[in-house]
Amino acid sequence: MDEIVVFTDGGCSGNPGPGGWGYVILADGKVSERWGAEKVTTNNRMELSAVIAALETILADSAMASRPLTVYTDSQYVQKGISQWIASWKRNGWRTASKDPVKNKELWQSLDSLASRLSVSWRWVKGHAGNEYNERCDALTQEAIASIKN
Question: Domains in the chain and their CATH numbers?
């Protein structure tokens, strides 16, 4: 079974401010992309929303949902959060190491639930460094933000 590759990005104009996210899914020689926007949000919420939307799309297609998947994000918050920090957060009742409530808990819980139904590898990619699909996600994010700023 061929691996599915996903790139995601999210951002805001101001933080908080109008925000957008985008994803690109590469599967079977095809490229699928989508974006979304919110009027008032944060960078981190948009980064998480991009990954959640991509995983929801993959899970909606049973042929894709059964395949291995690599998610590339330029957000260390997302990559480290889902692959390193989340186990401790759950163990500590959704509190950080400093005992503060985890920010964006509902999004992390959604991402955790979706990811648990898939075989996912999480990879960080440097943003704005010329990676074709990361750059495309950034362009989708900017398009999403522009759609609500006008």
Answer: 4-149 (3.30.420.10)
